[in-house]
Amino acid sequence: MIEINDLTVTYKSDKEQYTAIKNVTMTIPDGGTCALIGPSGCGKSTLLKAVAGLIPSFEGNVEINGAPVNPKEQTIGFMPQNYGLLPWRTVYDNIALGMKIKKSPALLDKNTIKGVMHQLGLEGLGHRYPKELSGGQQQRVALARVFALKPDILLMDEPFSALDAITREEMQDVFLKLWRKFEVSTIFVTHYVEEALYLGQKIVILSAGSGSISNVIDNPLFGVENVRGQEKFFQMGLKLREIIKKDWEQAWES
Ligand SMILES: Nc1ncnc2c1ncn2[C@@H]1O[C@H](COP(=O)(O)OP(=O)(O)O)[C@@H](O)[C@H]1O
Ligand SMILES: [Mg+2]
To answer: How do beta strands 185-190 and 153-157 pair?
Structure first.
């Protein structure tokens, strides 16, 4: 479970202060998913980093399974924008690296790495370097790295944005399969309405400019089989676009 209570994040430098996230409160239940959607610069990455424990000082509370967030105590799977793969490391080492950073005892467990590689169809690619992979394969390596950690929570920043539409849908399904298996509470950032609808049990809309939540939607279509091809998916997409458009227009006018 992820509990965010009245979170405010202010970036401070000698010259200025900028509040990127303001009074955000939200809860992701055990094994739930939440899609975070909002215009560029509204604070999505900042919110994710705060939940990951990567921002040293903030106001409010972030709790993971009842304890304040602390990357030393909890295992946090964090997938940054653009995968964060190290170009000078092989696929295998990139996947194992998450464990090394965490100093996890699972480091010794080569079977965990092999198992995740198998689930993601990465067998035979362990010796390659990231530049020798397609975009979809790089995405799989990034997923393998976070899932191999067996994380307490999973945070993904625009995970599938760099992929073409067909590969993106394929990777969304790959993600769902792993997520069902590991039952990990997940927050992901997206700017695709359809991605939010397909992967988010809960959809949280962040306002333009203000860094606060404008809408929370409990997504009735989450988990519905073959939902992408259905009329109700299309209709809900239109509705969500309407809500987002209205919200962002209001934000720019005020
Ligand atoms: N390290 C930082 N120092 C100062 N301001 C920052 C820093 N990181 C982000 N910001 C500012 O905070 C706001 C939100 O940024 P970010 O969370 O990256 O937005 P998003 O991911 O929604 O595009 C932006 O205006 C950005 O310029
Ligand atoms: Mg961002």
So the answer is: parallel
The per-residue pLDDT string of the chain (254 residues; one tens digit each, 9 = 90 and over) reads: 999 999 999 999 899 999 999 999 999 999 999 999 988 889 999 999 999 999 989 999 999 999 999 888 899 999 988 888 999 999 999 998 876 666 555 555 788 889 999 989 999 999 999 999 998 899 999 999 999 988 999 999 999 988 889 989 999 999 999 999 889 999 999 989 999 999 999 999 998 877 899 999 999 999 999 999 999 999 999 999 999 888 878 776 76
What are the structural domain ranges in the chain?
1-74+157-162+186-254
Burial class (CB in 10 A: 0-12, 13-18, 19+), 27: middle
Q: Six-digit token pair at 242?
A: 């309407």
20 lines ligand 1 (CB under 6 A): yes
What is the Å distance from ligand 2's center to 81 Cα? Answer: 7
Is the Cβ atom of 11 under 6 angstroms away from ligand 1?
Answer: yes
Question: Whose C-alpha lies nearest to ligand 1, atom 16?
Answer: 43
CATH topology of domain 1-74+157-162+186-254: Rossmann fold (3.40.50)
Q: Which atom of ligand 1 is nearest to the CA of 157?
A: 21
Q: Is 136 in the pocket of ligand 1 (CB under 6 A)?
A: no
Q: What is this structure's pTM?
A: 0.93
Angle at 127 between CA 123 and CA 132, to 5 degrees: 95
What would the two tokens of residue 27 be?
């809860």
**Does residue 12 line the site of ligand 1, with CB under 6 A?**
no
- Ligand 1 atom nearest the C-alpha of 40 is 23
Alpha carbon nearest to ligand 1 atom 25, residue? 41
